[in-house]
Amino acid sequence: MLQLSKNTVYKLINKGEIVAKKLGKVYRIPAESIAYVFTGFDYDLYQAQKEDEKNLERVGKTLRNVRKTIWKKSRSF
To answer: Alpha-carbon Rg of the chain, whole angstroms?
Structure first.
């Protein structure tokens, strides 16, 4: 399917680039583990990026509040 040799797949598993579970003598590779081949993103990184994007507005609001508080305190000196 991916046109990779068996040895290449074993090397990728050993390097941690492909996540696989070994059951007896057989490796099972979840589809999410090879999603990066098709999307250019590792699935875990993709999920983390989406989570970060959801939190951007909240982080920005917190930063604005902190800056406002610091500004008020610095003016009171």
So the answer is: 22
pLDDT digits (tens, 9 = 90+) for 13-58: 888 878 889 999 999 988 877 766 666 666 677 788 888 999 999 9
Q: How far apart are CA 52 and CA 7, in angstroms?
A: 36
Helix, strand, coil % (nearest 5) of the chain?
Answer: 70, 10, 25
CA 46 to chain centre: 5
What is the count of structural domains for the chain? 2
Whether residue 53 is found in the same domain as residue 77 = yes
Tokens 């993103």 — which residue?
41
pLDDT band, very low/low/confident/very high, at 67 (cuts 50, 70, 90): very high
Domain that holds residue 49: 42-77
